[in-house]
Amino acid sequence: METVSTSKAHGGTLGVYRHDSAATGTPMTFSVFVPPQAAAGAKLPVLYYLSGLTCTHANVTDKGEYRRVCAELGVVFVAPDTSPRGDGVADDAAGAYDFGLGAGFYVNATVEPFARHYRMWDYIADELPALIAAEFPIDPARAGITGHSMGGHGALTLGLTFPDRFRSLSAFAPIVAPGQVPWGHKALAGYLGDDRAAWRAHDAVALIEDGRRPAGDILVDQGEADNFLVEQLRPELLRAAADAAGIALTLRLQPGYDHSYNFISTFMEDHVRWHAARL
Amino acid sequence: METVSTSKAHGGTLGVYRHDSAATGTPMTFSVFVPPQAAAGAKLPVLYYLSGLTCTHANVTDKGEYRRVCAELGVVFVAPDTSPRGDGVADDAAGAYDFGLGAGFYVNATVEPFARHYRMWDYIADELPALIAAEFPIDPARAGITGHSMGGHGALTLGLTFPDRFRSLSAFAPIVAPGQVPWGHKALAGYLGDDRAAWRAHDAVALIEDGRRPAGDILVDQGEADNFLVEQLRPELLRAAADAAGIALTLRLQPGYDHSYNFISTFMEDHVRWHAARL
Q1: Quick one: how many helices (H) and strands (E) in chain A?
Q2: B63 and chain A: CB distance < 8 Å anywhere?
Q3: CA dist A53 to A162, B94, B188, Å?
Q4: Alpha-carbon span B276 to A140, nearest angstrom
Q5: Cα gap A182→A189, rounded to integer Å
Q6: Which of A67, A115, A134, B135 has a C-alpha 20 to 30 A away from that of A77?
Q7: How close does chain B come to A221, measured CA to CA in Å?
Q8: Model pTM?
């Protein structure tokens, strides 16, 4: 692991790091905020934040406004990239924003030419947490996961599949049912092929229907002025699936908020507190 | 004035606006955060934040972490650009980062080819406050000013020159004595010519020596790990000038902090509270 940069922030350290990922076969860059409590030698809880379409690690690092509350509560915050990048990594043939680079959808692709590098599921579920546990002062038994939009989809699917690894779960404006919306149709068909049975492992609503359960309750915030609400996000599908399964879902529709980091940064403190209370 | 975008944030509205500036003879873009208290019809205090070298309005807007505390305290936050831009606006001949575009140094240039558009002093002192008072729910008698690096220089020189307009004053890692440091030599010579007497109106330490006084006390934060501290920023010169003049200066040297927005965002809350308490 190579240190790209470090900078003191809110009493802790904001670092950007790069490593050669075995999962993706590419260099991967991520940021980690280590709060000041680490100086006392503590092993701290860790929150993984998965970003949305077009983002790198830098978007939430710059705009997420998480450092102050992480410093207050003693939470390590990890922000990975959203896809493999670099020489030889296939992109959408038309350069679309919603597939390929910046749009890995947190799956292991099985369709060429994406299968070689697009293995974000293994990267987030296995490789990155192992690296973080080895290199940073965290307690791997106290890990939570959240994310925005495509990253909210990733957080929900990973949290539902590995409740033993991700002990707390939340999302900002997540894609809750990619099998039922255009973004998801394109991504899941492109990465996993046309067999819709294979899609269900990467669809939070389908995972719940198929019996998966999170470690505990789930917090979801969703802006009511979000341009993607009706067509792509459809939180009512998660509401219905959670209710049918008896999952405790706190779904908050936030009047006037859009899909941007102005929305995310407003509610970030609530999410960090949600995770800290459960870790 | 044209609205470029608006977005709800922390209960208020973050907007980006553009207008044709009479001062600079160019379109100018700025951001304004209006906190939720404006909904009740209140005329609110306003804080101007002047950015540093290479920045536009967008840097502090994305990374400054000021919205939460402005929303708590009911402060309008205005972030202008750092220079004129566009067709016909001269730039540094070599494209340097510290002169020309993104580096207006908050002066009215008298040297061609800069004199035509580089009139950031008039823009910040007169034109922008008049526009803000006309278009936003602010009380112009309750205006404060702050800024970072080159923008800290602008805040100090404007605050010292117009204590009746800027009733509260602070800065992050400001250039306190441009007449005594390389960034300032280059900028003041380039914009104002070689007559050093003319420079003194744009040098906070010289302004204090020449009898100018701020409306009240001054808060300055400076990171001790700032790469520019020793050569370009030299807060000890402001300390000495303030002490000699009997100006109440709170100068805080912050161990471990660098020159970045990680530093600014850490101490932004303290600065907004400082201004709100005085406005």
Answers
A1: 10, 9
A2: yes
A3: 23, 37, 44
A4: 42
A5: 11
A6: A115
A7: 14
A8: 0.97
